[in-house]
Amino acid sequence: MVKNNFQKSPKIIDIKSILNVFELKYFWRSLILFCGLFLQFSWVSAQEDDLLLDDATTQNTTAPKVDFAFKTTKVVNLQSLEITDPGVLDFKMMHRFGPLNSGPYKAFGLDLATVRFGFEYGIVPDLMIAAGRSNVNGNKNMDALLKYRLLHQNTTNTIPISLELVAGTQYLLGSQYSNSTNQQRSSYFGQMILGRKMDEDLSIILSPTFLMNATSAMDNTQQWALGVGLRHKISVRSSINLEYIPVLTQKGTMINSFSVGMDVETGGHVFQFHITNSMGLNEAQFISNTSESWKDRGIRFGFNLSRVFTVVKPKTFK
């Protein structure tokens, strides 16, 4: 159709369209490079591990799966490799204080708060659903997502990585949006998570993400991002987490999200303490609406709390 239009009447070259194409090419080049290097490293590591396996193990067609790459389903903001077990309900509370540069009058951010309450539930093995409600700067919203594990890393490295797919949405609430259409209130994202538990201490993920955000503060409402996250275990019940989420398309004055955290497991709870420059608590917020930077002391202290409850007995799913 486009070709026929050009034949009928040549048009002036649209510079913006060329830039959009260039941005997409840049994204795919970056994605292919990151994923290629990651897969190559995983394959080499897998080959080295295979040399240590005896014949009995390598002939086992039901190799044990690699679990507990992360403490919970979150790195800090990003989705991790973990999926809530079937029949298990995971209550999530996420809390962010205000930025450090808000000054002494606001107790350097401790007087301010952004909160999200949510639940995650394992429907069947390798599939979970999540929903939550948050309040960011007085903007109330609801969000939901589905997360599915397509590949699960195993101990014999015949499957050297885990691959998961995530799809989610956000919907803005409140009287200030009474004149907005449902489309203007809604945001959607799709994400692929490639990850590997390198050894007992180190786990790494790459998360290419496409986001359609009608409420974005960026130059356009469609963004590509490539999240990178890692966890390094420092004891049986604690670990250090890092994540960085560069937006690969035009983002105007917005800033890439960067977070450092520590996970602590206490019985049935997992506490995630962290420092981050993002105030938002779902993908539409922390990917495309992060406006403060580390260099300007626009960082804030926060924590996530996870508490699991068994609703349906595991034997039901066997």
Summary of the model, kept short:
This protein is an alpha+beta fold.
Topology overview:
Elements: H1 2-8, H2 15-50, H3 55-58, E1 88-97, E2 113-124, E3 127-136, E4 139-151, E5 162-172, H4 182-185, E6 186-197, E7 202-213, E8 222-235, E9 238-245, E10 257-266, E11 269-276, H5 283-286, E12 300-310
Antiparallel strand pairs: 1-2, 1-12, 2-3, 3-4, 4-5, 5-6, 6-7, 7-8, 8-9, 9-10, 10-11, 11-12
Structural description of this entry:
By secondary structure, the chain is an alpha+beta fold. It has a single domain (14-312), classed as Porin, CATH 2.40.160.40. The protein contains 5 helices and 12 strands. The protein has helices spanning 2-8, 15-50, 55-58, 182-185, 283-286, and strands spanning 88-97, 113-124, 127-136, 139-151, 162-172, 186-197, 202-213, 222-235, 238-245, 257-266, 269-276, 300-310. A 12-stranded antiparallel β-barrel has the order 1-2-3-4-5-6-7-8-9-10-11-12. The chain is globular, with a radius of gyration of 21 Å. The protein starts with a helix and ends in an 8-residue tail after the last strand.
Q: What are its keywords?
A:
318 residues; globular; alpha+beta; single chain; twelve-stranded antiparallel β-barrel; Porin
Q: Please identify the structural class as seen in this structure.
A: alpha+beta
Q: Kindly report the CATH topology.
A: Porin
Report the CATH superfamily.
monomeric porin ompg
Average pLDDT score: 83
- What percent of residues are in strands? 35-45%
Series of secondary-structure elements, N-terminal to C-terminal: HHHEEEEEHEEEEEEHE
